Amino acid sequence: MVNYPHHPASFRDPSGFVFRANDGFYRQVNPSYAEDYECLMNSGLYRALTEKGLLIPHTEIPENLSGSPDWYKTLHPLQLPFISYAYEWSFDQLRDAALLTLRIMGMAMDHGMILKDATPFNIQFHKGKPVFIDTLSFEKHVVTRPWVAYRQFCECFLYPLYLEHYKGLGPQKILTAWPEGIPAGVTAGLLPLKSCLNVGVWMHIRLQNMIGPGAGQRSRGQRKGAQEVSSEGKAGTGQGGFSQQKLRHLVQNLETIVKGLRPKAATNSTWNNYYGTTILSRDYLDEKTKIFRQFIGSIPFTSALDIGSNEGFFSRILAEKNVRVLAVDSDPACIADLYRTVREKNIPNILPLCIDLSNPSPAIGFRNAERSSFTERARAELVIALALVHHLVLTKNIPFADIADYLTSLTTDYLIIEFVPLEDEKAQELIRNKETFHKPYDAASFKEQLARHFSIEREAPVPGTARILFLMKKREA
Amino acid sequence: MQSHLLYIDPGSGSYLVQVIIAAILGALFYFKSLWWKIKSFFTKNKKDDRAENDQDHG
Fold first, then answer.
1. How much is the pTM?
2. Which of A55, A142, A245, A258 could form a disulfide with A49 if both were Cys (CB 3.0 to 4.6 A apart)?
3. Which residues pair with A411 in a beta bridge?
4. Cα–Cα distance between A28 and A7 in angstroms, integer?
């Protein structure tokens, strides 16, 4: 009897599956993967990877928990508090995930194994660093075969990084449109002419585009060649095929390329350096920080969600309280900055993600159940929305009532929210050439709508401005 | 007419690409290491000369 069905995202790999039991997530290993699993555990690879924090550690449970008849082992991996997806990551996060994949591939080769797939869905951010979570992605290396996951690596990591590097097309948009990787042909069409001079682009994109499946009809000889190589690889005869050394060159080459790629958009972002130059004044920030510290000092919470986090000034204050902080902003450059800060200053409890509150990540994949929406995943005991509401109402035309409803679904207990009145200079900027927005836009209607779901615990005007900070507690449903 | 192509192993294209790339990288690696050998041959000699000169002056 099957006790627990597989997780809706864990059905593709016949080697095993993830399922959720009462006390958390488990991973089952099927008998077909037994040999590779034992090789991972006994070759020293598992130990080497987990000691360096590159692979998620697990303990073996000597029990068929799932109840599936096709059972070899049950693994209980370290439980992660939050799952994010590559289309929510900044450029640097995707690049670090790519480098992690290549590093693990290199270490696997040292132990006679390889990665059989290379997708960002196998990676999660935990304590500020990327970690590989798919324990069943390793297989024994047949030295005469090229890398089976090479194309996937290119489409999921390399091409989105190249497109940002050359064109400033954010990897978030690219991977939202192509969650399983953008094809070489589309990438080649989007890259500028000058990229033709780059050897890496030529080898990994243009060449692949010329010889990819379906491109074989251009030349009989080419297709014949492709099939020959494929059958040689599989048969393992090795004549004109591959070798360990060649694979190492390939992996090293990819690593060199990925390390050299930089975000193009970073220099012209809207919100980047907001606190440095754009913000009203230093006094305003000091006063706001003082009130904010008083608010968070007066309530108990273990998790926080900072929406419209910008570069994470307030997320970092929250992080000082040793709570888990999810910092989201629609500007990838801000999130990239925050991620770099988190990495450099080693702040393990902030996870920065690129999320546009007016269009958060949807539920996607088979049955719309493989990757859940941001709204389904983002739950926190405290939600903070500072200097955000005027953007949602005045720019995005979202009424107060709808904002209040949405915030209610995000927080389990508390809300700290800032109201920016119409006379504020930043609000004036937003309506300078705009007459159509939901009215009345004032503190009274703001409070009225939020009071439907929250009780207002504290209300503090920010001295020197007309802005107001509120601490609210969610009403019992 | 071209639907049969859908049934070609989707990996086959990337296998050929990898064989070609590996050949290019192998050649580059070969020339690079040759270059380093030549370079180190001369720089080593130079260093030796300098070391000898230093000794002379010392």
1. 0.88
2. A55
3. A380
4. 11
pLDDT tens string A145-166: 999 999 999 999 999 999 999 9
Residue A150 to residue B19, Cβ atoms within 8 A: no
Number of domains in chain A: 3
Residues A261 and A349 in one domain: no
**A359 CB within 8 Å of a chain B CB:** no
Domain that holds residue A94: 86-266
In a domain, A210, yes or no: yes
Residue A283 and residue A412 in one domain: yes
Residue B58 predicted with pLDDT over 50: no
Any A CB within 8 A of B1 CB = no
Least Cα separation, residue A95 to chain B (angstroms): 22
**Are A236 and A385 part of one and the same domain?**
no
Q: What are the residues whose beta carbons fall under 8 Å from the beta carbon of A205, sequence distance 6 or more?
A: A154, A159, A162, A184, A187, A188, A191
For residues A123 and A148, membership in a common domain is answered with yes
- Smallest Cβ–Cβ distance between B2 and the set A148, A217, A222 belongs to A217
CA distances from residue A319 to A31, A218, A296 in whole angstroms, order as listed: 44, 57, 11
pLDDT of residue A432: 87
End-of-domain residue from the set A243, A266, A289: A266
Report the residue of B2, B4, B17 to disrupt the A interface, i.e. the one with the largest count of A CBs within 10 Å.
B17
> Which of A146, A214, A240 is the closest to B18 by Cβ?
A146
